[in-house]
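Researcher: Structure prediction, please.
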Amino acid sequence: MQDRQMHLVAYLKTGPTALHVGGWRHPESTLDDILHPSRYQHIARVLEAGCFDGCFFADLFGLYDIHGGSFDPYVRRGGQISYLDPTVVLPVMAAATTHLGLGATLSTSFHTPYHLARWLGSLDVMSGGRVAWNVVTSATDLEAQNAGMDALPPREERYDRADEVLEACFALWDSWDEDAFVLDKEAGYFADPAKVHYANYQGRWVKTRGPLSIPRSPQGRPVIMQAGSSDRGREFAARWAEVVFTVQRGKDEMKEFYDDLHVRMDKIGRRPEECAVLPAVSVVLGETEAIAKEKADYLDSLIDPELITASTSNSVGVDLTKVKDPADLAKLQGNQGMKGTEQILQQAMKAEGLTLAQAAQTRHRRRELVGTPSMVADRLQEMFQAGCCDGFVLAPTTFPAMFEQFCRGVVPELQRRGLFRTAYRGRTLRENLRS
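Model: Predicted structure follows.
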């Protein structure tokens, strides 16, 4: 048995497309159930049977329309769209499972701490302590405009506000002591008011009085996830994150990110085991390597080049068809864009001598681990034992087929090698992440 075991979290969307822009067109992908509870109950049960730590829904507060100034490519060609609010879907999944962690993406830029603490705290209580909050500051003006703002504030300001929002939420989640309920019918004594507290938080950007009306959950508060790759994003992660979702080009880049985050954590007194760093991977599995490669080639044939350009444009916050010189990217971005995507493009341009447009087209191509379950397990084991990560965020190519195949084929192989749990050890998500 290995002393250290990897963690697995699933990347989900309440729509047809996750990170692979052509996967929804595959015959193995289901589409007629996107708006039905059964879709989300099924994948929750599949992931729990595979002993995944949890899942989380990536989300956007609107429809992308940066490419060409229109949402046409995303609607017409099946881009990453949230057709349902994940905070409504997650309770359905919680009711269908017992152990699986459940994550929601919510922005600190558009919601008050009290709303956030109330939504997430309620779900954490109802799920028995299995909720994670994927904290984002948002990266597009369209989201700001949907929230009644003219544009996004500068990135540094958004992170400064995010620090305060989390401080306020933590104070609100601490409003109730663990043993506040008395429930004495005979004495007429329901709960002890001495164990309920005001938050009285006031910062530069947010303030809230409290107390929260939601009692303490079994894990105290939701697990904090984060995915920022900028310098300020890494600083934020070092302070708050218990799970970091990162997209890296290769093993060297994974290792650099992993080590850098640990240095930052050490400087503020946090131990490495307090945060699981999980790079994104996707897989294409076959009975033989040749069959897996043939499947991967077919998946590539389903990719729409315009949707790749649109997806990359939306991620960097600029219509790339209008960028003639990469040096102009920052000028055109303003306060928009995800630094993680920008860094991957820069890495590809440098390593392979590509133009910006070429790097954008290769961003979604053949990023999967392709092979038999044993071969894919070899690759995951190699990265894990090389000290590049603490496990992986698994993003689907086909849905739900890829997850089903991974749980049937790769998970048992990892378990056989002692690299992954065979049963849940903890009662809450945080306990499972620490075990």
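Model: The chain is about 40% helix and 15% strand.
Researcher: Thanks, that helps.
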